[in-house]
């Protein structure tokens, strides 16, 4: 877990994002227990309610589940769900604007592929 926050978005969202990143990166596996609100609040020196709000985002998205009296755990298919969501976001945020600009300047698909292959040869 990283220990600093930035000012670009609310801390509770950053908590949710960090745990989601850990799931995507394989640091948290399906069925594995995630840090508790108490652990998060102590580690990051934040209010427990802030940590709880971040975890609630993950619960609402079906990425983690609560086991009463035990804690919260990574849900089945959480990694696949996150990867699918992030691939869609990647397309919208990076690929579609690139294709729009390529069309604007009359780049062919072959030229775009050439650029990508040329860059990956480094």
From TrEMBL:
Coiled coil: none annotated. InterPro entries: Tscrpt_reg_HTH_GntR (IPR000524), WH-like_DNA-bd_sf (IPR036388), WH_DNA-bd_sf (IPR036390). Gene3D superfamilies: Winged helix-like DNA-binding domain superfamily/Winged helix DNA-binding domain (1.10.10.10). It comes from the Bacteria. Keywords: DNA-binding, Transcription, Transcription regulation. Residues 9-77 form the HTH gntR-type domain. The keyword DNA-binding applies. Pfam families: GntR. PANTHER family: GNTR-FAMILY TRANSCRIPTIONAL REGULATOR, HTH-TYPE TRANSCRIPTIONAL REPRESSOR YTRA. This is GntR family transcriptional regulator.
